[in-house]
Predict the structure.
Amino acid sequence: MNTDRSIHESMRSHPRVRPDLRFRFQKNGGDPVYLIEDGLYRQFLHIGVPEFHFLRQLDGVTTVAAAVAASARRFGSRAIGENEAIDLLHWAGERHLLQSPETEHDAESGGTAERGTFRIMQVLFWRMPLGNPDRFMAILNRLFGWSFSLPVRLIWLAVVVWALFLAVENAGQLAGASATAILPGNWWRLILVYAVLKVIHECWHGIAVKRYGGRVPEWGIQLLAFITPLTFVDASDSWTFPGRKRRMMVTAAGMYVEFFLAACALIFWEQADPGIARAVAFDVVFMASVTTLLFNLNPLMRFDGYYMLSDLTGVHNLGPKGQSYVKWLAKRFLLGVRNAQIPAGYRQAPRLIAIYGIAAAAWRVVIWTTILLLVATLFQGAGAVLTLLILVGVGLRGAGAFIRYLYEGSGAERPRLRVALPRLAAAIALLATMLIVVRVQPSSRLPAVVEYEDSPVLRAECPGTVVEWIDEPGVWVEAGQIVVRLENRERVTELARLEIERERSRVRSREYLDEGSIAAHQAEERAIAGLDERITLESKILETLSIRAPEGGIFVSRQFSTLPGRYLMPGDEVGRIVVPDRMRVLISVPQRVRDSIAKRTGDEVELRLRGRAGFPVGARIERVEAGADSEPPHAALAATKGGPLAVRPVADIETERERGLAGSELREEDREENATGELIRPRFRAYAIPEENLSRDRMLMEGEWGYARVAWADRETLGGWIWSRTGDYLERRLRDSALQW
């Protein structure tokens, strides 16, 4: 009875379509459709011909029943029926197409309206319009519009195919360069390259719009989570273009130019010598390809890939339709609403809309979780408060709307409490059971680094300028082989002076002996003995100018690129010799899995290092230390050096000399360079020995890091893992905030 009464009341209502909406006739895949252009809410919607004529009847005077009757007279079997009319009104109301106090307020305010559900999130997407770029885009179109011509597109295809071939051929080097590119020291360069690429990306959207006769009324900057800059250009005028070919060209224009720049940069990178130009070229490759594939081409986000998918499939407004479908699923099967309204347009492509809606909902959860976690780390603890406020605000608003719908329904929809409440309880019980029963293995990947025991460190003993050096690090050297040779002209001159002085003393000694001056002769002989000692000592010092390998092994050096022409002081490190037989893998182990790993001493782990894709190394656990340590197990694993372990600064940081890796005290600048901080939470150290004998060309280098896969580590419940990780994270953030304040 309630449902019938609601339908009856809806049919007698007098809704009014907003008068500011613009309707345009188009062909979509050969089918006639109408485009709704909504300037207030910045949206473009496609509807069929019967839907268009039905909405045009809604003038605030005509009833819904009269509009349905008019549709029946005009379209016959294709007419809008009562149920379809209710669905269409619901759809139009959700998209603010009907006149209401809310839309009137938004129109009077003169600004772009935001959906009420997301207003609390608006703080995370701060937008700064930069004016009307239409004239500037017209100039760019005159200068670069030719880039969309057929000959240029053929050139684009050839260059991109060539770059793909090079990428496959140099896959290993590219993987290694990727690991280096994302180190903290390179972030400033990546940010600069990213900013330039995104400006070019948006400009090409605007050029495409102008090329096909459209307008570009606005562009600007948007900050995601306060720190990630995003550029935007209003290319929505492309929706008015007849046919989808031009719309897809506008949508793909940004990716079109970015992929071309990435291809050109990759070709240059493959040919260039090591240096800053080659590094910048790889940054262009990385940012213009990886980020474009992950974000712009991702159809689950409202970027270029989403609009391309809509045009390719002919299903417009795919996101809202998919979201409405997920809501319909929840209403129909979770709340037991028998007459839940199927989303308008769902029957156009039911399988696509269903799959897209579910996938987009899952992706939305991942993205919002990531954004909120990112915000929580900002502003010295204030970000955590902001995140909490957002969660509470959204949670209360959502809970209020859900309870109101549960007890009051919406229009003709009425949830059945006797069905909804048991199903909700069952869903909560199922979720709780999963948290308790499902066991996960979150610790199967542990940070690991390659190191060599008792690696001889090569240091300068005599000051001097480097004049000769080995070809490159990573090569095998034999015992006694000269690795670096220094030059010290002052010492050489001093040795020559002493030798001349000794010859003069010998002449005088012979003269005294011939003259019979025995006492003078004996004094001169003592002077000669002293000069001999000084010459011997000076010769030994000069011999140290040739720094030799004390034993056979691989020469490695972090300072190799700065050695040529450098003046070294006594104690300055040149490099070290690593012996393959002494290689071991140091694994950083959290406390919660220490005991389980200690019980499996002798079992195998798999080591995967950055930049060595497809090259896993088997190793066996040798031992696990009994005590935990707050000192980073290796400098390469510290976050300050680009590693995976979070650290915080401390007042007194041990140097390499204090850890026994050097023989003399380091200078102040060396102390600052080697500082890595201390771990946020103490960790244990485990050691593993590789099982296979690696050839020299596949030899693992000191300081290479990655992850050890421990397939047999103890599992823990999903709920326990989430609880412990959340607690650890909040405790760490509160502690850091207290230290910073």
